TrEMBL record:
<dbReference type="InterPro" id="IPR036388">
    <property type="entry name" value="WH-like_DNA-bd_sf"/>
</dbReference>
<dbReference type="Pfam" id="PF02631">
    <property type="entry name" value="RecX_HTH2"/>
</dbReference>
<comment type="similarity">
    <text>Belongs to the RecX family.</text>
</comment>
<dbReference type="Pfam" id="PF21981">
    <property type="entry name" value="RecX_HTH3"/>
</dbReference>
<dbReference type="InterPro" id="IPR053924">
    <property type="entry name" value="RecX_HTH_2nd"/>
</dbReference>
<feature type="domain" description="RecX third three-helical">
    <location>
        <begin position="108"/>
        <end position="143"/>
    </location>
</feature>
<protein>
    <recommendedName>
        <fullName>Regulatory protein RecX</fullName>
    </recommendedName>
</protein>
<feature type="domain" description="RecX second three-helical">
    <location>
        <begin position="59"/>
        <end position="99"/>
    </location>
</feature>
<comment type="function">
    <text>Modulates RecA activity.</text>
</comment>
<dbReference type="InterPro" id="IPR003783">
    <property type="entry name" value="Regulatory_RecX"/>
</dbReference>
<keyword id="KW-0963">Cytoplasm</keyword>
<dbReference type="InterPro" id="IPR053925">
    <property type="entry name" value="RecX_HTH_3rd"/>
</dbReference>
Length: 148
């Protein structure tokens, strides 16, 4: 039987947050949600998360950069990443700043993703072309990368 521990002390909340951060970066909002699911009160969890931010152990900027890097390596474009980061509670300005960074060549990534999925190249029939466009849109590449 799975026992559920209640996070009722600042030390237990911090320890649980540190355990989660040891596995991967988290956004502030994402970590708050996970702590609340584990039984921590919102106010107590926010206090501990603010301390982690002050200590430099929790950073939305670091999370955003790591997330964009990891997902772009798997072939996802800026539109999909923007939506996923928004769902994880990252500030819109931070998302836009990260996605606009010089280290991301979205057009090259779109070409790479397109040619991996469609090695035969661009389709000539409208139905097949529509399928290719839907795939690219699903992956997060909008019209500005349509020159694959």
């Amino acid at each position: 039987m799975l026992s559920r521990t209640v996070l009722d002390t600042p030390a237990s909340i911090r320890r649980s947050a540190m355990d989660l951060l040891a596995r991967r970066e988290h956004s502030y909002t994402e970590l708050l949600r996970k702590l609340r699911l584990r039984g921590a009160g919102t106010a107590e969890a926010e206090i501990e998360l603010d301390r982690l931010v002050d200590d430099g152990l929790l950073s939305d900027e670091r999370f955003c950069e790591a997330y964009v890097y990891a997902r772009s390596q798997r072939g996802y474009g800026p539109a999909k990443l923007r939506e996923e980061l928004r769902q994880r509670g990252v500030a819109e300005s931070l998302v836009e700043q990260t996605l606009a960074g010089d280290e991301w060549d979205w057009a090259a990534l779109a070409r790479q993703v397109f040619h991996k999925r469609f090695p035969e190249g661009e389709a000539s029939e409208p139905a097949a072309r529509a399928k290719q466009l839907r795939f690219m849109q699903y992956r997060g590449f909008s019209g500005f990368q349509a020159d694959w």
